[in-house]
Design goal:
Elements lengths: L6 E5 L6 H15 L8 E5 L5 H8 L5 E4 L16 H7 L3 E4 L2 H6 L4 H14 L2 E6 L3 H5 L3 H16 L11 E5 L13 H17 L9 E5 L4 H8 L6 E4 L6 H13 L1
Parallel strand pairs: 1-2, 1-8, 2-3, 3-4, 4-5, 5-6, 6-7, 7-8
Helix pairs in contact: 1-2, 5-7, 7-8, 9-10
The protein binds 1,3-dihydroxyacetonephosphate (13P).
Length: 260
């Protein structure tokens, strides 16, 4: 057993509808209700319009739910954005920030990601901050430079003494961009090397909870490869895209994390 409690988060991305969500929630409730997998923390992140549905279906289970993004700003004339205080209002415990799809498609910068981390800290929303290199960056030997830069921005936010967030509410997710939705997973050894680098970087930058911080792996995690990845000493669970939409697959991944 690892000292850090494994965490598995499902990032549904822009998928789902009321009827299919209900089927998924029903299956998760049946299998992951409070008693069954206490060794793993499970978070489900549907699109914003379905957060209320997640609250209704998961509120009385041990399964937490979260948002896929949050605004870096408190409130005001920002059409389409959702603030951290609104998430708290709904009872939402977690937010993913800095996903590579937002970095790439919405042009989010490291500074904006850091501001989102700060906003979560201000409001006590647990944060799952994503980092990861593109294929081009990996092939150019720049993986550590990119991860280091992304981690440094996040740590700068985490070190703000005015907004302490307990270590168990700070999660990083290493998601190599080339592995997302491609079926091409990092090998357990590649994931471990990146996770070890990230943990060391957190410590070097002065984040004193580096050893307690969960670092998730994301990118084509499936039931078949989850156990191998989660067995690595610095891999503390997963951020799951496609496979989180299929109840049996997601539950199998949760069990793999529980057994790691
Ligand atoms: P896939 O599991 O579909 O590759 O997506 C990973 C991801 O981006 C999770 O945030």
């Amino acid at each position: 057993m690892k000292a850090r409690k494994p965490l598995v988060a499902g990032n549904w991305k822009m998928n789902g509808d009321i009827v299919s969500n209900e089927q998924l929630f029903t299956a998760l409730r049946a299998d992951l209700g409070r008693a069954s997998v206490p060794q793993v923390e499970v978070v489900v992140c549907p699109p914003y319009p379905y957060l209320g549905q997640a609250a209704a279906w998961l509120g009385d289970t041990g399964i937490a739910w979260g948002a896929q993004d949050v605004s870096a700003l408190p409130n005001g004339a920002y059409t389409g954005d959702v603030s951290a205080s609104m998430l708290v209002d709904l009872g939402c415990q977690w937010a993913i920030v800095g996903h590579s799809e937002r970095r790439q498609l919405a042009g989010e910068t490291d500074e904006q990601v850091a501001a989102k981390v700060s906003m979560c800290m201000t409001h006590g929303v647990g944060v799952i901050a994503c980092i990861g290199e593109t294929l081009e960056e990996r092939e150019a030997g720049r993986t550590e430079a990119v991860l280091g830069r992304q981690v440094d921005a996040i740590v700068a936010a985490l070190l703000d003494p005015a907004r302490p967030l307990p270590a168990e509410r700070v999660v990083l997710a290493y998601e190599p961009v080339w592995a997302i939705g491609t079926g091409r997973t990092a090998s357990p050894e590649m994931a471990q090397a990146a996770h070890r680098f990230v943990r060391e970087r957190l410590a070097q930058q002065g984040y004193r909870h580096a050893g307690a911080t969960r670092i998730l792996y994301g990118g084509s995690v499936k039931a078949a490869n989850a156990a191998g990845l989660f067995a690595m000493p610095d891999v503390d669970g997963g951020l799951i895209g496609g496979a989180s939409l299929v109840a049996d697959d997601f539950l199998a991944i949760c069990r793999a994390a529980a057994g790691a």
